[in-house]
Amino acid sequence: MVNIKELNPASSPQAAYGARIRRFREERGWSQDDLAPKIGYSSQHISAVETVRKPPTLRFSRKSDQAFGTTGTADSFEREWSEMRNGSLLEGFPEYVGYEGRAVELRLYNLGLIPGLLQTPEYARVVAYGDVERGAITAEQADERVAFLAQRQAALERSRPPMMFVVMDESCLHQAVGGPEVMNAQLERLIELASLPNWIIQVAPFGMGERRAFHLPVNLLTLADRSIVAYAESQAQGYVERETSLVAPMFTTYHQMQGDALSKAASVAKVSQLRKGTP
What we know:
Distance between the termini: 74 Å
Order of helices and strands: HHHHHHEHHEHHEEEEHH
Radius of gyration: 22 Å
CATH architecture of the largest domain: 2-Layer Sandwich
Structural class: alpha/beta
Strand order of the largest sheet: 3-2-1-4-5-6
Largest sheet: 6 strands, mixed
CATH topology of the largest domain: Endonuclease, Chain A
CATH class of the largest domain: Alpha Beta
Shape: elongated
């Protein structure tokens, strides 16, 4: 009798992936030998993925989706692989990032924390490891998040870089992250970015009060064909919207907020004052 290794899906995301491959396979009455020709991998390789001796790959995930009929569904193995690879990102965020890399204009709004695309590696690492301390993600996932953010930032550095419009709630500047050294470097980074011709950085001061239009982070993209995309997220979920009739009013609201925010020069002056330790 074949000794079948017991799986513990709760032990890690990779273990959950392997257990799900086994469950889907057994529900169809397939052995590992039966599945092998359907996905182009050996039965030994399938066994290694199921028992966490080999990590799954994007190709393995896509081939499994084809075999199990889960391509593009909520049960997609490609989706599960992407979540593992990118540090358990919010639902909707990987889709958004695909648009972000092709955008010709980005409009960002954030509160509480410096927007990711403006973060220094040190600041980003402290934020990610804050989630580790809370038990929300593993240290490995935190490192993957930081690396993934660096890739997104690098994608903005191209021969024809996109225009970057950023409105930050003043709370972003006052939230102490990582101590004085990390914050000082982060504020210096904001000043450096603001000096670039394709960056417009503005601060939405506390005094805006009830005129503050957004109460959650919002990213608005304009693509090369002038189509527009919106991305917003809560604590638990991200959402991508491409319907123009829904996204266009958000652009209007964003532009109104820009009008109420501090000018670019006044915003840089406020960041400089904070960096020097003056209120």
